[in-house]
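Job type: complex structure
Entries:
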Amino acid sequence: MSEKRGFLKEFNKNRTLFLMIAPTLLYFIIFSYIPMIGVYYAFTNFNFDGGLFGSEFVGFKNFEFLYKSGILWNLTKNTVLYNLAFLIIGNILQIVSAIFLAQLASKFFKKTAQSLMFLPYFLSWVLVGAFVFNMFSDLGVVNTMLKQFGLQPYDFYLNPAPWKYIIVFFNVWKGIGYGTIIYLAAIMGISDELYEAAKIDGANVFQQIRSITLPLLKPTFILLILFSLGGILKGQFDLFYQIIGNNGLLYDATDIIDTYVFRSLTVNFDIGMGTAAGLYQSFFGFVLIMTVNYIIKKTREEYALF
Amino acid sequence: MFKTKKRLSLLLVLSLMISLLAACGGGTASNSPGSQGAEKSANGEGGAAEPKLEKVKLSWYLVGDAHKDQSKIVAEWNKMLERDLNTTVDLKFTTWNDWKTKYNLLLTSGEKIDMIFASSWADFYKLSKQGAFLDLKDLLPEYAPTTWGNVPEEDWDSVTVGGGIYAVPNTNPEYTPLGYVYREDWRKEFGLPEFTDLDSIEAYLDAVKTQKKVIPINGAAYENVNSLYKFWNDFQLIGGDVIGATSYDNPRDIQILPYTEEFEAWVKRMKTWEQKGYWNKNALSSNQEAGDFIKTGQGAIYWRNPSSAGGFINEVKAKNLNMEIGFFPFTRFHNYVIPTLPSSNAMAIPKSSANPERSLMVLDKLRNDPEYFNLMTYGIEGTHWAKGEDDKTILIPAPGVNLDETPRYSITSWGWRYEPNMKNEKGGWDGLDALKEEFSPISKPDIFGPIYLDYAPVKAELAAVNQVFEQYGKPLMLGLTSDVDASLQTYRDKLKTAGVDKLLEYIQEEANKYFDEKGIQ
């Protein structure tokens, strides 16, 4: 009872603020919470007559296909490791290039570099997939070059090993411009006074970066990591699908949950099984983000998301 | 205040995470049978009793791609429809790219569709059982009387599921066995005999590779090899790519094919083919069709059925490419052919349709009225085709039309084809008629296609087995693994883990049920 009174009081006090947040809340209720009812599809054997609630309830049967082939562990591992690699390598490179750009004096060069780095972000994965095919196929750029130098050509499409690096490389390459801008904005927000004070104390550029820029970027870094962690079990479907496609030879190293689910369901279209896979990913993303946030909260409360 | 803010941000994060999931689960189809029934009867009475029909806009879907001039043709069609039935149709296409995913989504999303292409190879039976389509049994005699009368009884049987008629099959008996189109001029140049068996095909591939220095099966090779595999071994696959009868004459001998000796011999032979360079090492990743390479002189073989082979050959001729193309149907390996099931090309009405009656009336017109049929099947007269010397013959391209600017009109008209309205192309490939004559005496009924499988008890196993097939079966088929024995062993083991035995049991059971019913031994 007391809580309710507390909320009413709160509401009366900040009526305008509540009004301002109302559209956002409404948006999430309509587009995120109400459709969540669809989660129930994961537990039914769908048919068109019954629809959502009229279809037969089958419990966890729809989840069976995920572990039946015994590769759920490999898929989950691939998905998580790829995302961690994207996250860590991507963020480090983004921070490094943001710091470089911030230190540059020439405005023209700074702008050009920024634009060039941002450009790949706008390319679709379909195009990138075509680049990759033309680079690594039998008669592709790489093999033609190897032959020119008198070296043995390498059959990229028969060996899974190099693809881990190719995929990480292209993902980082594509995302670097976007992340750099976020970090650059954070760096620009750092007060000049701090740097001036450091200079007066005789700190060189590297010392300034280590003691001022990096510590002050930490909140941004943690926030971005936390946001990404929730999606760590969701692979970037288009990236993997466009680059690897139907080449089963490469699946050991490159198959992620999303591509696996896509292949299963294009052969045997089934709403229940598709939703089951989505639920599996979301549930673990949820658990993961709660855990990490909890740990951060215990150690450094000011950085925690909530 | 602070607490509330925290709670709100929690909410925000939660919603962000869940929004993706929601995108998967959303789209609750609202098809309550009650409201639809009411609409139906109201509409039905209006349609039958009144000569003047109320104006209706229909939405139709076809699989595949639209033609460049599609909007012109549909506009023409709509003029006729408005005149005769006071109806307009919005004709939409799935495009061939990921068509199956789109097709399934269209049906599940509850989009209002009044007519859609349906086929046994587009899960017609499964979808009908799940209730995706409307039962037309009572509507047909009233709203499509001509069609109801001219479709043979046994064709209606083939689209009947659990007592209901869920589609209108086309009436165009054909044979569509697979085969190879190939560079016939090169075969003559090499002085090689015509294809009769695997050895003669290998000799040809070898000559193309060594003498012409051309990769014979260029681009995406998988289907080219897979179709040869099925026909050469006389394997009759049932439901998927792994399980099937070992031959037409032993329908009850259903096995897991990768466990057979024939399969082992086959993949070993394919390994030698791969080593000799009959296809590329990136054959599984390539998205280019082998046929496109033939047209540019960089390939020699491409899998087609007789009518698409005809299309291919006609195109090569019309473009004046300097080459002679032959066609070898794989039916010559075992000397029999199975006709295409009527249910493999049909039109169905999804449950979401608001005007099923009108839609059937349009279909009835489209199938049986030559004016409608010609327009939608062959395009605009004078632009996409012209009249030949008699009513059964047409000219493509029409005189004075350049095929590079106005490509031939070939949309998926398969669903409404009606044999008496079909036309032959003048100067087209005459092989098609010869093949028809070759096929009719050796025709045997399709005893595998109608086996009804919905996989309900083995869904998980099916999905898992298909994964294993994709990952291990396909590369093995193309000889792309370094150690065939080892990868064959892996493939077999993985199939076992995926539950292939349970799937086999299910398929055997269903097949035997069907064979018992039809008295097939």
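Summary: The longest helix of chain A spans residues 72-103. Residues 66-303 of chain A form a domain with the MetI-like fold fold (CATH 1.10.3720.10).
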